[in-house]
Design brief:
Layout lengths: L2 E5 L2 H4 L6 H4 L1 H9 L2 E4 L7 H9 L8 E6 L5 E4 L5 E4 L6 H9 L3 H21 L3 E6 L2 H7 L6 E5 H7 L11 H18 L15
Parallel strand pairs: 1-2, 1-3, 3-6, 6-7
Antiparallel strand pairs: 4-5
Length: 206
């Protein structure tokens, strides 16, 4: 069976959901597209780490790829291919506070995130894979990509703010993932000029 490969942070991996294998937005989209889901979301991932994961993944020619790019103020320090350290603005460790006080700037963050995202845009284009980009904020995503043809016009923030939280009280819960996945699939069907075949999934299906 052909595959849907999803990349992203904890929003993609399904942190806080009772059954991440079936309840993430990626699981919802995979059902719409009749594809086998391979979920490569990583809790706490930065866009640098997402870029790294895409570049090191063993793709097949028939794969479809969706990347939900994360918050641009996150940073990852690599020690080697498999060992890394996360930096978050909300972490109050001494090392983390030092990074954001002494090294992080908005300009540098935006510049490097644009490099990561566009590198993957051309990497996947050159591989001739079918792929889509999604963002926490669609307008913000468009400001990073050099062309927007593959950007799904849906704001994750809209669903995050309007639906109940998961069990950790931080991440979007089952209903929000279902609604977001349905909307992403609807936009993909529109982008592929196949909207007449779109039918929203109900909570009973997931």
């Amino acid at each position: 069976m052909k595959r849907l490969i999803t990349f992203g942070c904890s929003i993609t991996s399904g942190v806080g959901l009772p059954d991440p294998k079936t309840q993430t937005w990626g699981a919802v989209v995979s059902k719409h597209l009749n594809l086998n889901l391979v979920n490569k979301g990583i809790h706490g991932a930065s866009n640098k780490l997402i870029c790294h994961e895409v570049l090191n993944f063993n793709f097949e020619p028939s794969d479809t790829v969706i990347i939900l790019w994360t918050y641009e103020d996150r940073y990852t320090k690599f020690f080697n291919k498999d060992k890394y350290f996360h930096f978050f603005p909300s972490f109050y460790t001494k090392l983390n506070k030092s990074y954001y006080k002494d090294f992080h700037t908005d300009y540098d963050s935006k510049f490097t995130n644009k490099l990561y995202i566009n590198h993957i845009l051309y990497f996947l284009t050159n591989k001739k894979l079918k792929f889509y980009f999604a963002g926490i904020n669609y307008k913000y995503l468009n400001s990073f990509t050099e062309h927007n043809d593959n950007n799904i016009p849906v704001d994750f923030q809209y669903f995050s703010l309007r639906y109940p939280k998961a069990s950790d009280n931080l991440h979007t819960g089952v209903q929000g993932n279902l609604a977001y996945g349905n909307k992403m699939a609807e936009k993909i069907f529109l982008m592929e000029k196949n909207y007449h075949n779109f039918k929203p999934l109900s909570p009973k299906i997931i």
